[in-house]
Write the C-alpha cells for this entry.
Amino acid sequence: MVKSGKKYTIVGNWKMNPDTLDDAKKIFSAISRRVSKYSKVHKVIAPPAPFITTLAGKKISLCAQDVSSEPRGARTGSISALEVKSAGANFVIIGHSERRAAGDSDEIISKKVSLALAAGLRVILCVGETQRDGHAMYLREVREQIVSVFSVLPDKKSAQWITVAYEPVWAVGGSYENTPKPGDIHEMVIFIKKVVSEILDKKTGLRTPVFYGGSLDSENALTILRDGAVDGLLVGRQSLDPVAFAKIIEHANKLS
Ligand code: PGA
C-alpha cells in the first residue's frame, strides 16, 4: 500500500444522537478501545453539546457541532464558542449544510468562525454545492462560501486554525454508493486550496487542510483517502457504529 506520509484527522459527527449520556459513553468507549492502537491518526468526535464535558479529557479530541454567532448574553438556547471551549472541546464544526439549511447565511457563518477562533477553537468549516451542474456553477457556490470566511479574517495567521471540509450537500446523508468519485474530490481539494491562496497567499492556501464528508463508510473511505488527496474525513452516520468508524480510522492509519 502506498503511504501518503500524512497524519490524517478523522472526525465523527454524531449530530443529534444518541438519546442518552449512557449510550454516548458506551459508544465513545467502544470506539476508544478499538482505535487506541492507530496512533498515526488524529481522532475527533463531535457529540451533542450536553455530552462534551463528560467525554472530554480522553485520547479522542472533542468537537462542538456549532456555536452561536454572538459571544454571550440574551440568546436563550444558544451555546457560545467560549462555553464549548470551557466544556472541553478543541474543535467546532461551522457551516454544516444542516445548519445552513436551518438558516445560517455566509455572514452568520463568518461571525461564528471569528468567535470560535477568538475562543481558541480549531474550526472545521463545511462548504459544498447543493447540486452539480454541467457549467461549473457549483464552483462559484463553493468559492463564495470560502471567500466570505477567509476574506474577513483578522490576520493571515488565523487561517492556520481553519480546516475546510468539502461536503457536497447532495452526498450528505445519502446512499453510500453515491459519493463523488475520488478524482472529483481531488479536484475540489485543489480548487479550495487555490481559492484560499488567492485570498491570502500561496503558502497559506497550500497548507490549509481539506477534509471530505458525505456518506462515508468503511469501503469508500479507503479509496477517498488514497485517491482523493484529502487530509481527513468528516464521518456522519457511520461514526455511531464503533466497528465501522474504527475501520475507517484503521484505513487512515495504514495509509499514513
Ligand atoms: P453522513 O454525514 O456521513 O451521514 O452522510 C456526513 C456529515 O453530515 O458530516
User: Anything to note?
Assistant: The CA atoms of residues 90 and 127 lie 20 Å apart. The longest strand covers residues 122-127. The mean pLDDT is 96. Residues 9-255 form a domain with the TIM Barrel fold (CATH 3.20.20.70).
